[in-house]
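Subject: for your reference before the review

Hello V.,

The reviewers asked for a structural picture of the protein, and I figured it would be easier to keep everything in one thread rather than splitting it across files. Below is the amino acid sequence we used in the manuscript, unchanged from the supplementary table.
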Amino acid sequence: MTRSTNFEKFLDDLKVVPVLNPDTFSGLQKQAQSHPGLLQEIFDSFFEDARELSGNLETADAARDEKSYLEALHTLKGLAGTIGASRLHELTGFLYSQARNNDLSDASKALPVIKECIMELEKELQGKV
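And here is what came back from the structure prediction:
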């Protein structure tokens, strides 16, 4: 099985991963109950950072800058995990594992998928935050 085929299979498997982990989101809601606006602030900050990091990934991929790519990917992975963005977390984890093994072969193909995951999360959160 080629690397590209592995990525395509991974993307198929990714479709069943929830966009937002309900347990993590529920925990965030509970923690923010006594602080009006905090949940909105958390997600606003996440989306601002996620857009910046996806831009950094794009720049690093174009320059074939593995170090910058790894740093942006690792940060995005951590942020996604913290707020319960399960699908984005799984995707960035897969790509991070590849990149740590000096494999950026799927980096360019992954950028639109990363952006799609971010947009799906925004849609998922409408009316919840």
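For the response letter, the relevant points are probably these. The mean pLDDT is 94. The two ends are 42 Å apart (CA to CA).

Happy to draft the paragraph if you're swamped.

O.
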